[in-house]
Design a protein that fits this description.
Elements lengths: L3 E4 L6 E3 L2 E4 L6 E3 L14 E4 L9 H14 L6 H10 L5 H11 L26 H14 L5 H9 L8 H11 L7 H5 L20 E2 L4 H14 L2 H16 L2 E2 L2 H10 L6 H9 L5 H6 L1 H4 L1
Parallel strand pairs: 6-7
Antiparallel strand pairs: 1-2, 3-4, 3-5
Helix pairs in contact: 1-2, 1-3, 4-5, 5-6, 8-10, 9-10, 9-11
InterPro entries: Znf_ZZ (IPR000433), Znf_ZZ_sf (IPR043145)
GO molecular function: zinc ion binding
Keywords: Metal-binding, Zinc, Zinc-finger
Length: 295
């Protein structure tokens, strides 16, 4: 509940507001400002003192709240976006969350019903058999092997007058029909096998053009600072900014956005806050340094 509750073993000053106490070494305490500089046993657990914590909602509780919100809003919004909003908010009141959803999110577009196109089956006309053409097709198939479709060979042979058939021309045209085959006419005539073309697997494209990466240790420390200093209005504005950044395919952590809102000269102008985050030389660590005085 606040007040002085010990002396910091690092800076030797009285600990006010918030700090840490080792559960394994009862005599070891450290203030919030010296937590990153302390040299203590890594396996020991530190208890946070002087901070009122609200137990976070469980995954199932978030799912249940989301179902209620979707029901109250007649399923007008994307369930995925509603779930993200519920997870980030400590609020459990359904009416307040519904009001927040209507303020921040846009209704999801209704899917268009497409009329199925009637399928018309085309009757395949059987080509007239020609004994001379059949003999040429059989000869080409024997030379090239089973790697080439017989239908392709038949189509090429039928397209040429029977009295003017050049075997070399037909073989070259069959080979040129399949871009995955690299065998030359000479290799094909000697029966050299054709290697199969390897399928190239393309790497999946990222959903974001930029995504902020945060070290796990920094992420925990920044979350504690956000719990201490962030206001309800700042949390609401942070959700709006996250939506604005998603439209630009940019992703920043919620704690970084809250930190910028705390120290920006004009935090009510959300577009200016977004412009600050988009600056090439933006460094979240520099903004979190400004929290030391407030802490």
């Amino acid at each position: 509940e606040g007040g002085v509750f010990g002396i910091c073993d690092v800076c030797q000053k009285e600990i006010e507001g918030a700090g840490f106490w080792c559960l394994h070494c009862p005599s070891y305490t450290v203030c919030l400002g010296c937590e990153g500089k302390m040299e203590h046993i890594d396996s020991h657990v530190l208890r946070v003192l002087g901070i009122k914590f609200v137990l976070p909602k469980t995954k199932q509780e978030n799912e249940d709240i989301t179902d209620e919100v979707m029901k109250e809003t007649n399923n007008l919004y994307s369930r995925c976006k509603v779930l993200n909003l519920v997870t980030l908010q400590q609020e459990r009141d359904i009416d307040k969350i519904c009001a927040l959803v209507k303020k921040i999110l846009k209704p999801a577009p209704k899917p268009k019903k497409l009329k199925p196109k009637p399928v018309v089956e085309k009757k395949k006309e059987k080509p007239e058999t020609n004994i001379a053409n059949e003999a040429i097709v059989a000869q080409v198939t024997e030379i090239l092997g089973s790697s080439y479709k017989r239908e392709v060979i038949e189509e090429i042979v039928r397209g040429r007058p029977s009295q003017n058939i050049n075997m070399d021309v037909i073989l070259n045209e069959v080979l040129s029909r399949d871009p995955n085959k690299t065998t030359s006419l000479r290799d094909a005539s000697y029966g050299i096998p054709v290697p199969d073309a390897e399928e190239k697997k393309e790497a999946p494209e990222s959903l974001y053009e930029f995504e902020e990466l945060v070290d796990p240790a920094d992420k925990t420390r920044r979350a504690i600072v956000s719990d201490l200093l962030a206001t309800s209005e700042q949390r609401t504005n942070s959700m709006i900014i996250i939506g604005m950044l998603e439209e630009m395919k940019l992703k920043f952590s919620n704690d970084s956005i809250l930190c910028v809102l705390r120290h920006h000269p004009i935090p009510d102008n959300l577009q200016e806050v977004v412009n600050t985050l988009r600056e090439p030389n933006f460094d979240a660590a520099e903004w979190f340094e400004r929290d030391k005085e407030a802490l």
